[in-house]
Predict the 3D structure of the following.
Amino acid sequence: MDQKPHIAVVPSPGMGHLIPLVEFAKQLVLHHEFVLTFIVTSTGSELLKAQKSALDNLPPSINLIFLPPVSFEDLSKDTSIQAKLTLTITRSLSLISEVIRSLVSTSRLVALVTDHFGTDAFDVAVEFNVPPYLFFKSSPLQLAFLLFNLPTMDLNISCEYRDMPTQVLDIPGFGVLVHVSDLPDPVQNRKSDAYKWFLHNTKRFVIAEGILINSFVDFGVRLIDALQEEGTGFVERTKGQGLVVSSWAPQIEILGHSSTGGFVTHCGWNSILESVVHGVPLIAWPLFAEQKLNAVMLSEDQKVALRPKANENGLIGRNEIAKVVKDLLRSEEGMRIRERMNGLKEAAAKALSKGGSSTKTLSDLVLKWKNHKI
């Protein structure tokens, strides 16, 4: 049996979910002499192909096991993305169990790490007496809302949350009040499968040995560009002025380039961290999930982003987009935003430095795992 501490990682499908855990794994392998095995689930062959491409050239101590794609042919068309991500793990549990059984018998398996869409894999960890850990890839603000606010709201409020948009919440650890209208969209409809998923996973968090928050390494994230769709004419109209990337772009390299003066972001947590690490000020344009919460944090609490305003139809028009871009790059407010973002960049560098808070947190966790008794 290999005596090096070994960790099994079960990421939920999607590149934005996989890459943070890969970067976390690299830290453990390159600096702490761990061995890791990724048990990669998938919803289809195309996604599996993209995942394999992103996992090329990993250190030899990171092993990869790709499970067969899961079928959703039996589900209704309106099944939520959150439900599908969770079901991908759930429907792969028997295969995950086989892999864990093999790892337990051939290695010193000290932990199973999954994300908040994969908490059903905790049951496999418990079955084999392996400590389960939750790697939370969204913001600590979202975690605080799920752990402290949502359960209380579910018990004390009888109406739909979307019917009380001006109601404000005091989320622990957050500097400003949050309107209910800025909560994740699935939370607004309490009858939906997505809402039930939120409550289910919040309750499952208590099974984890610990919650690892994605807040200290710059990660990659998928760029979804709806403007490239056929018939829009956008690509032709912007030739010579801009560049449309059809799938993936080296976002970290782009944000680190000296000519990048700002970033229009959907407010995914990965993108926010990458922007902070490189000191790039933001235009916050949230799309779904917890991104509206992140936009509030960026624009109202930390004040490192401008947030465009929607018109009476709920749409953000071209004039508003042009205004916030000009304000970010040229106005006095934009200069103040840049200064505050540079302050966060310095704080991030300090946290990542030797002896910094993030480095120390990881080192403390590593010590716990290395001392774990099988």
About this structure: The first helix runs from residue 15 to 32. The radius of gyration is 21 Å.
